[in-house]
Fold these 3 entries.
Entry 1:
Amino acid sequence: MPELPEVQTVLEGLQNVLKDRILTGVECYYPGTVIESAAISGCPFPARIGEFQRRGKYLLLHLESASSLIIHLRMTGKLVYEPNPEEPHKHERARITLQGGDAVRFIDPRTFGKIILTPSNNLAQYLPDLGPEPLGTDFTPQYLHKALQRRSMPIKNALLDQRIVAGLGNIYVCEILYRSGIRPDLPAGKISLTRLKQIVRHTREVLNESLAAGGTSVSDYRRIDDKSGEFQNFLRVYQKDNCPLGHSISNIRLGGRSSFYCPVCQK
DNA sequence: CAATGATCCTGTCCGC
DNA sequence: TGCGGACAGGATCATT
């Protein structure tokens, strides 16, 4: 499940592969995977990518033709660079074509991923309300304190809410709460500023460690060069039987998601 | 407004 | 060996 470190790793892979290349189009092989804004006037291709950006779990490719591609991988989306590809792969839902015949395949078995083509000045219409970047300077304990006050939902659900902080998913939230020593089901609004400091600190720590490892590969996620990330080797609670101290891990469902935590280390 | 639950979708895994 | 069912989960929409 691509979260911030995986999306960032994919972005850097795209940057390596697509820098200075001329995009000639986006083909769609599954209804609804590619969405083209009605506000697009004239064909935005051929065009180079002027800027590569990530916002939360969204990839933003700004074309020099004043249009942008918004890509969301959701759970099983993968981008794979392919020199001169032939017929679409079995789970290939879309394809970004390049001048010269090469392409980036969008492979997504569960079909939830999207590629949106929209004028660059109209991005906001296709991006939801997103909270601060967890590695940015405005993600602070004070911010979290304010965002969570009087909220009764479990802290785990709050950290998964992209409107509160943009880019975290199930794996990293489990790991962040373990390192912070906080149970995932604690009501978000009742957590002290001191403990929120732990959350902010460990959010940065976990994300930075994962970025350094090229992300986490637990199921489908691969880098654009189809290599695995390595952070799954450093997970302490997610899909584990025991925490690093040997206590047995509990798995409860919160917001319909499995939530791994150590009942001894997390209070 | 806040919180919860259903929904989308298919590959994988488990038990019988 | 094969089958049914549970499960995985990000974001959105509907309901309470």
Note: Residues 1-3, 57, 72-76, 110, 112, 128, 160, 162, 169-170, 219, 256-258 of chain A lie near DNA strand C (CB under 10 Å from a C1').
Entry 2:
Amino acid sequence: MIIVTIDPDGPVPVYRQLAAILRDQITSGQLEPGRPVPSEKQLGQEYGVARGTARKAIAVLRDDEHLVVTVTGRGSYVVPPEDRPDD
Amino acid sequence: MIIVTIDPDGPVPVYRQLAAILRDQITSGQLEPGRPVPSEKQLGQEYGVARGTARKAIAVLRDDEHLVVTVTGRGSYVVPPEDRPDD
DNA sequence: TCTCATTTGTTCGTATGTATC
DNA sequence: AGATACATACGAACAAATGAG
């Protein structure tokens, strides 16, 4: 069992650490295709970071890696592997 | 007559200023036990704040001070003094 | 049962100010 | 100067619950 925590004082920015955690959950199938990613608020509470930081982590997965899509007023959802551009 | 206004630029957050205003109205009896607190929308309009800010003010009175209870789809109501935990 | 308005609940989008590194 | 991080605040959209009719 690997304990995944965030180190605010480490060399890697918090939002990138959180993005890595979520990326692992997605690629491992723990977060299934089509299912919603926890909200920015939830992620903030669960990982002890500000909403803006959680938001930035999701932005990485969405804008840079296309692992999720975001819908205003709804949330972000895991993109099925076959729908991901160059994967 | 004390004029109660909200100072958006002061050191105290707007939602706490509004919570203080409502708290005074409740403890002074101006807002009577059992009666509804103005809706989030109304408070927003009356005090010139966003609904989310009015909502946050009510959350303080409900979650931290137990001065009001909230019913989804209905509104928030003033808790009678004798029903308030440790008061 | 159905429709409608009102209200609370939740979420994202954006901006500002402050502080730190 | 720039990136990071937090708190606050406004706005918008969507959802769910309630009650009136």
Note: The CA atoms of residues 6 and 48 of chain B lie 9 Å apart.
Entry 3:
Amino acid sequence: MVEFVPARGIPIYIQIRDALRAEITGGNLRRGQQLPSENELAARFHVSRMTMRESIEGLVNEGLLYRRHGVGTFVALPRPQREHAKPTSLSDEDDNEHTQVKLLELKVIPATPKVAQALDIPAGSHVILVKTLHYADGVPITVQNAHIPYKLFPGLLNENVGVQHLWTLFEKAGYRVRRAVQRLEAREASKQVAHWVNIQEGAPVLFKECTVYADNGTPVEFTYCYSRGDLYTLTVGLERGRRVGQ
Amino acid sequence: MVEFVPARGIPIYIQIRDALRAEITGGNLRRGQQLPSENELAARFHVSRMTMRESIEGLVNEGLLYRRHGVGTFVALPRPQREHAKPTSLSDEDDNEHTQVKLLELKVIPATPKVAQALDIPAGSHVILVKTLHYADGVPITVQNAHIPYKLFPGLLNENVGVQHLWTLFEKAGYRVRRAVQRLEAREASKQVAHWVNIQEGAPVLFKECTVYADNGTPVEFTYCYSRGDLYTLTVGLERGRRVGQ
DNA sequence: GAGTGGTCTAGACCACCCG
DNA sequence: GGGTGGTCTAGACCACTCG
């Protein structure tokens, strides 16, 4: 935490933040340990205290540090799991190498009333349906029906849908994905779902409805998912808002 | 957004933030509308630009505004639902007046290995078991088994458990609840669960495991929940971290 | 009282976007 | 080029906690 040569091009407060994060996750700073005061850190890194605070702020938001007014700044425990849970457009943890995705259908259809409402478009508008089957270790786990407003992404049909996350395509089109709302239920498998994921009709499935929003609030995706109850666990990290209402 | 008399005792940036939030949610500022520049707002509220930015920052984090470098600050759509989803220690949306909670059991037991691991305490340590049944509109929906390290809250047994959220009790004891991790599955109802929520054995239930952490990273609660699949929907808001990795 | 984090100022220069 | 947000400074005073 002593030697520090700022690079050009990258904001200093981010460089300091990265340096501190490395110290913490690397184990040089132990859990519960108190950091030097903001003034001392600012002097050590040769920046103003405001800049130093900006660095610390980010780590507090990440949950790596916490502050106590009038006392000091401390190292929190390592993050329990995948916090800052990025909402993902697929089945939430499909990033590892043991998962595969198979494209079942890709076509333009009129939006059902429910889909239209979720996407905030007129009922019957064109939406792109992306139906996929998701495997883990070769076993089919999840059937997913994603709906995307055709107007927002008219070029989507030419892209490599199913291979990349839909999100990647959204960002290419200039929509920064920011929020998602999921609704979760336990249901009985319909005949169709049972067929796809290879279980008995009526067996429990985790049903998920998910609406994804860009940072300007536009809904960009509405998805139904059906996952095998016996093989699928959805993990969600929740965080309390920062300084909200205070 | 013009007249503004700062009150004493409350930080100005919070007062400005509240004023702006009211403008937005009140509908005076429409979605997509551009706000005056930071400089102009600072002048209007008679504060420095840094203070003005602090106000805006919070609203951006809440998702009410978004910024575009070199362009301006804009009003996002109203929040889709209960974003900033506070993790709640109960079944997640038990705040309204149509829900009741019945205390089934309250006792100290030795921690099972799984509970001990989740709470980061030695196996067999004392934990407080709070078993509750949650009703919506008079219908039993959820059975919950909450486990709390006895060492952290030795006085909990004397409190009005079951009436207030456990969280309230945590905060009284000086633990600020900050994060939670939930694991969700669809399962078949066991005979016991089926009995409590009045469904057939084998019917689908939403199973939830939840670990709750204080802001210093200490696990304060580990909970199992079983909810009727046909009547219960869990809604979760996800947000992308701010400036994470950037 | 001494030290900490919390708030706030009045400037500055930079990076980005647009016409 | 002109306006926007992004970064940064070198101070100041306040509110909180603890010994």
Note: Residues 44 and 89 of chain B are 42 Å apart (CA to CA).
